[in-house]
Specification:
CATH class of the largest domain: Mainly Beta
CATH topology of the largest domain: ATP Synthase, domain 1
CATH superfamily of the largest domain: F0F1 ATP synthase delta/epsilon subunit, N-terminal
Shape: globular
Strand content: over 45%
Number of strands: 8
Order of helices and strands: EEEEEEEEHH
Structural class: alpha+beta
């Protein structure tokens, strides 16, 4: 049997997942990345998007907004500002978030425009996947 990755997904409200998995794909602010067992340690900021958890031939997705991913020799821990199981995401709620994000991007100046644009892009990608 192949090595498994120990993965924990935590938001301020609750621990959404903790267990051994095959792979986790994470939307990072500097690009998406996949983590397997025995991955080199690193830390990355997360952008709005979908985290995909692969395990024993199944995929589970979570909508995530903000936070950090920490890869250590013990596994991957994702500390998310907001995290919701994709099957629980409502299209109308997401549409409202897109409207807010468009207004925030329009008002953003200088260095604040990049995270605002990433947030809006992530929301639009999530809406397309519903």
């Amino acid at each position: 049997m192949a090595d498994k990755l120990q993965f924990s997904l935590v938001s301020p409200e609750a621990e959404l997942f903790s267990g051994s998995v095959d792979q986790v794909d994470v939307p990072g602010t500097e690009g998406d990345f996949g983590v397997f067992a025995d991955h080199a340690p690193f830390m990355a900021a997360i952008r709005t998007g979908a985290i995909t958890v692969f395990n024993d031939g199944t995929e589970t997705q979570y909508m995530i907004q903000g936070g950090f991913a920490d890869v250590t020799p013990d596994g991957l821990t994702v500390l998310a500002e907001i995290c919701i199981l994709m099957s629980d995401v409502k299209a109308d709620t997401l549409a409202g978030e897109i409207t807010k994000a468009e207004a925030a991007l329009e008002a953003a100046e200088g260095d604040a425009s990049l995270p605002a644009a990433q947030h809006l892009d992530g929301l639009k990608q999530l809406a397309e996947s519903l």
